Amino acid sequence: MTARPKAGAALLFLTISYYIAELVVGGRWSDANPYSWSANMISDLGVPECFGDMAQYGASTPRYICSPWHALMSAEFILLGVLVLAAALLLGPMLPKTRAAQSIPYLALINCLGIVLVGAFPGSAGEVPGGDRLRAVLHPAGAYLELLSGLAIMIIIASLYRAHRAYTATTLALIAITVFGMIASLAPDHLGLGAGTAERLAIDPFVVWRIVTGVVLFFALPQIQLRGNETTRSRRAAEA
């Protein structure tokens, strides 16, 4: 491997910083009203206002919001977007010359934009009377961009890789979890899982996938054959 793809793989692995930030910021909530991993939304960690009990505002998802280290979480969201885009640009030249594969850098750009919007325009404003309308629109828009572009990237990669069966199986399993999480997030009472748990099932698989992909690319890429490359070699052999 050259330095460029190794750097791209390392950047993918470094997105593990998302989980570190979650643990650090979530741990700074008060003992009287701790962050709930099942009830609180992920973006509650980055909300600058100390809203307190959201039930008083008639929020669709009652929970407590007061994140002292909100700035760190918002900065992490933005960093995450930058890491994803930089990794895609570094790894893009390694993709096969198929239309689906070549769309990945563009999807990564959309993913980056979505995550940056999530960090730059913190959530929950739309649940409070008189809340910031711009945040109320751009935050969920960013979340959907992040979710759908991440799902699309995983689907494309799963369709490309053949030789590394364990990696492909892992990708397919994460896709299935994402779809289930999306259904749970939209279902009444979130299928009894809690709003935070349902959201994590939808969002976190792509985070896990990036970390796993970073490790696989860094250590095992020389043994991984892309279907697109195999098809190209077969076509050239037939033409010869």
User: Largest beta sheet: what is the strand line-up?
Assistant: 1-2
The helix/strand class is: mainly alpha
Total discrete domains: 1
Q: Please, how many helices?
A: 9
N/C terminus separation? 29 Å
CA gyration radius, whole angstroms = 20 Å
Largest sheet: 2 strands, antiparallel
Number of strands: 2
Task: Provide a descriptive summary of the structure in words.
By secondary structure, the chain is an all-alpha fold. The chain has one domain (3-239). 64% of the residues lie in helices and 2% in strands. A two-stranded antiparallel ribbon has the order 1-2. Helix 1 packs antiparallel against helix 3. The protein is elongated, with a radius of gyration of 20 Å. The two termini are 29 Å apart. The model is unreliable at 224-228 and 231-240 (pLDDT under 50).
Considering the chains and any ligands shown, give keywords for the structure.
two-stranded antiparallel ribbon, about 240 residues, about 0% strand, about 65% helix, 9 helices, mainly alpha
